[in-house]
Request: fold
Amino acid sequence: MIIDSHAHVTGPAELYEYFRGFTNVSGPAARGFGRFSISDERLEESLADHLTEVEGVGTELQLIVARPWAIPTAERRSALVMGIAQQLNDMIAQSVRLHSDRFVGLGALPQCPSLKPSDALEEMERCVHELGFIGFKINPDPGEGGWEAPGMGDDYWYPIYHKLVELDVPALVHGGPFRFSREPELGYFCQEESVAGWSLLRSPQVWRDFPNLKLIIGHGGGYIPYQYGRARCFRLNEAGRADNPLWEPFEESLRRLYFDTVLFDQEALELMFKVCGVDRCLFGSDRPANGSVIDPRTGRSLNDVRPLIDAIEWLSESDRHAIYEGNARRVYPRLNLASDR
Amino acid sequence: MYITQQVNDLFARCVGLYPDRFVAMATLPQVVGVSPANCVEELERCVNELGFIGCKINCDPGEGTGDTPHLGERWWYPLYQRMVDLDTPGLLHGGHYNYGREPELGYYPAEVTIGAWALLRTPQVFRDFPNLKIVVGHGGGYVPYQLGRARGFRLNEQLRDPDLESFDSSLGRLYFDTVLYNAESVELLIKAVGVENVLFGTDKPANGDTIDPVTGHAFNDIKWYIDQIPWLTEADRHKIFEANARRVFTRFQGRSDQAGAPRDPKGGRRP
Reply:
């Protein structure tokens, strides 16, 4: 079975038109925010292309979550951000209900500088217990490069980690909206996910406090696998490591994290599997998204990742099974409860 | 400016003491918020008086504040113009980091990548300066690892503007050094950007001098990684270790006999 652990569902455009009517405006236009109801028929229409594209590459089950740009993290009215996050999660749940054989839901956290991690806990409970979601997406930089959110190794994030462990659900670390003039979406996601990963990797206290915390660094781990040697070297150079009971080699820290295969290049995938270990890597395609564009050299979409993995000769059948299905079932224990497949 | 001049003078003295061992690149007097036009005079002094063959560009003199225009912006053009006039390549390298969220480990690769992405997605820079030579430090930051993603972004842009060159054509305009401390990544780099565009670099001595307990070699013994790559030919290795550097740093070829020797005015662009 092919389980795609990294996918976003958009839903109908009018949902976002409704939200935009309230964000970044004030005065009378900002009043009256309520629930925007989407009919099943309208949602089906918006899902048609998505389903066709995903079935076209043989993916059988997708873990879906709201688009990374959908939570308006720049908005400062926390009630509005909370309401939007709830309605996005509801839209994901409605999509899962319509296609329970194809989709399983992940929750988007309500995040913005004025919402603390503890403000997300109620929505996390609702997503798991009422909507049947099996994990979450965390934006490591809800300040969008402005307000500096503490690194993910900081205890600022502990309320969320505590709830993740209590609910036994993992979280996908994924960038959100970006307002950098220096670097747009291309590098921003990889960069912020790496900043989050580096911070977790050099914070052994987090793993002592939450040994069962499961975090997946999106987009092939950003650039952590490529700069693996540099990180190992820095770790060995750490001053006072002999006196630090929590010190461990970098390669041991690395094996506390998980990674997805959202890399559209075989060489990069091979590097990730070698450096991070096949058992830490979950199949993910980010399909459909801008990677759906056809690569003229292959005639296939760039985010048709499976042929790239199939072409890696040194992977065994059991390795491939782990990447496509086994690891996702192990990391997302609620997957087996949520899906009849 | 004063500090930069003294740093460059110090480097000129080092070269003077060991002319068979060292050749120098200019440090630029970069300051947050100040146009790189302020670097031109010192670059000229370094090249014409001190015999330097290139320069180091800090692509983020704003130290993570986001205040510095990216390398695709015209803000940098006075420096690019002088680099091309003098045929001096620039090594992209991070500088100081006052960035609370990520210290040196990730900051350098991240910032050189921001610099490289900006040049890669702004083909106008190389239309305006076809002979501009930029070497992306630290193995290209993470450009080689996220090539697939970058190709996807370009292909989407090409749907709107079919005249835009392919991402791989843009990539071929940049050079990359081999400062990566594991064999797998060095191999990926060479495959991703091609033998012709890779320059041997070690960052030695520095914190990479540490011995890797697994291999028994220093992390920055990068020649050892390259020697192990079975598919590289002898000619490939010669390019990476020497010939590419001589082609890119055209002033270096003159320097081996005497500083300021005549050079090919067209510079070292690839055929």
Q: What stands out?
A: Chain B has twelve helices and six strands.
